[in-house]
Each structure stands twice: as structure tokens, then as C-alpha cells.
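User: Here's a structure from my thesis project, written as C-alpha cells. My advisor, Dr. K., wants to see whether a designed sequence matches the one we expressed. Can you design one independently, without my sequence as a hint?
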């Protein structure tokens, strides 16, 4: 596996691949890899392509310095995992190289600042937008893979694709199902900040939410567990509120529950479709 750390070098590398008529799959990550990330890699195996993973902990998408500082870092182990799973190239840029010197004035559709995580994390999606655009423009992938656990982020990726890349038909966004542990907890790098007792608590609470949404909004808060938001939303409306055009007919009448919770100081998100 080749490891590249500069934006200029990755652009040169991928330009050579394209000149050789190679397709490129990009799996963006912030490291601390788990089975959820591996499912994205597994999905990419269905596309004949050179597989590139990126590893960059984006400081622009954190709302507190403490949260950024505490984000788990396991770079040596991540490299071993990527090698074992046949990634061809790892792009691991320095922040001074990948962060643009002059940030553009980003105006995202209403939903990214007023719904779900966007309402509680001002500037978060602008930060994601900046880095994702940098990755796409440097690597020029044909396929990108994202998990449905970060559903609002997935909407942002689809919005970026719609606004900049859809007309050229050069990029396919592949959404992948949320991967859960044996207790039903959605896999997340932040889970590593929880002990076993806390993980069991979260799994039980989320199961309760899935089974009985109505009574839980006020009854679940305890000293160790609190709900930031819990919403039942129509997917067609949700996509429209995030600026996505040509809403797919299959989304009509489909709903999901979205939630963000705190276990101590650890923030977790989840979502699941309901009938």
C-alpha cells in the first residue's frame, strides 16, 4: 500500500491512474477504523477500481477544542487494517496542506443549519463541505463510499455532488447501511470512549427509543445519559430541506427516527427507518 501525504502528490498519482483508464474508489475516514469502515471498503470491492482511503481528522467539523483533542487516534493500527483489506493507497494529508488558506463563504441550504445536527453544531457541515471538496478535487474519484449512520452528512455529500459533479457524470456516491454491534449499537469511533457499562446502557436506551418513541423524549434523561434531539422525519421532506432536487419516488412516505445523545461527555448519533 502506497502512503501519500501531500495534495500535490495525490493529484499527480490519480492523474496517472486516469491516464491509464483506471477507475478510482475513495473511502474517506477520520481514522480509528472499525467494522463500519470495513463495510465501506467491502462495498468498494463491487466496483473495479483502484481503492484509495483518506485519513484526516478534520478540525473544522468539531465544535469544541476538547472534542477534537479527545477524538481517538490509532494511526499505526489503521494502516495495518487498510493493508490487510487491500487498500491500494492511503492519503494522509497534513492539515496545513489540505486546509485551504482562504475559506470560501459557504451558504448551505436551510436544513444544514436548522435541522438535526446542523441545529446543534453550527459550522459543522461547512467544515465537512470544505474538506470533502478538497478531497474530491485532489483525487478525482469515480466512486465515493459513505455510511448511512451519518445521514445528514450523506445528504451533504449528495448536495455537493449535485452542485458540482452531477452534470459531468464522473462521480457516483454510494451509500452503505449502518453497521451495528451485537447489541444493536451503531459502530462509531466515539464508542471507544465508552466503557462496557455505558455501551450496554446506550444500546438499551436506543432499543427503547426504537420501540416507543412517544414517551421517551422526557423520560430518558439521567445523570449519565441525555438526549440532545430525537426527531421522526419524512425522508422526502428532509431531502428537499437540504437542497436536493429530483427527490426519488422511493422516498415518498418513508420516515426515519434521528437522534443525538450524550453519554457523559461523549456525543453519539443514530438513525433508523421506521415503517
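Assistant: Designed independently from the structure alone:
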Amino acid at each position: 500500500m502506497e502512503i501519500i501525504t501531500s495534495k500535490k502528490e495525490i493529484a499527480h498519482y490519480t492523474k496517472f491512474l486516469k491516464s491509464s483508464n483506471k477507475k478510482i474508489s475513495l473511502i474517506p475516514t477520520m481514522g480509528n477504523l472499525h467494522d463500519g469502515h470495513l463495510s465501506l471498503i467491502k462495498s468498494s470491492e463491487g466496483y473495479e477500481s483502484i481503492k484509495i482511503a483518506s485519513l484526516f481528522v478534520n478540525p473544522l467539523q468539531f465544535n469544541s477544542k476538547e472534542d477534537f483533542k479527545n477524538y481517538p487516534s490509532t494511526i499505526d493500527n489503521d494502516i495495518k487494517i487498510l493493508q490487510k483489506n487491500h487498500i491500494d493507497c492511503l492519503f494522509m494529508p497534513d492539515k496545513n496542506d489540505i486546509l485551504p488558506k482562504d475559506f470560501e463563504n459557504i451558504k448551505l441550504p436551510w436544513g444544514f443549519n436548522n435541522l438535526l445536527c446542523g441545529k446543534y453544531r453550527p459550522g459543522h457541515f461547512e467544515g465537512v463541505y470544505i474538506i470533502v471538496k478538497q478531497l474530491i478535487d485532489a483525487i478525482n474519484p469515480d466512486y465515493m463510499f459513505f455510511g448511512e449512520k451519518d445521514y445528514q452528512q450523506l445528504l451533504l455529500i449528495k448536495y455537493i455532488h449535485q452542485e458540482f459533479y452531477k452534470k459531468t457524470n464522473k462521480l457516483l456516491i454510494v451509500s452503505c447501511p449502518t453497521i451495528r454491534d451485537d447489541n444493536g449499537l451503531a459502530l462509531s469511533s466515539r464508542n471507544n470512549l465508552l466503557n462496557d457499562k455505558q455501551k450496554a446502557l446506550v444500546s438499551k436506551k436506543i432499543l427503547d427509543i426504537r420501540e416507543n418513541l412517544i414517551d421517551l423524549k422526557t423520560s430518558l434523561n439521567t445523570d449519565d445519559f441525555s438526549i440532545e434531539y430525537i426527531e421522526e422525519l419524512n425522508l422526502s421532506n428532509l431531502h428537499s430541506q437540504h437542497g436536493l432536487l429530483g427527490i426519488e419516488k422511493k422516498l415518498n412516505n418513508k420516515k426515519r427516527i434521528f437522534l443525538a445523545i450524550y453519554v457523559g461527555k461523549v456525543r453519539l448519533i443514530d438513525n433508523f427507518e421506521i415503517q
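When you compare it with your expressed construct, this may help: The longest strand covers residues 225-234.
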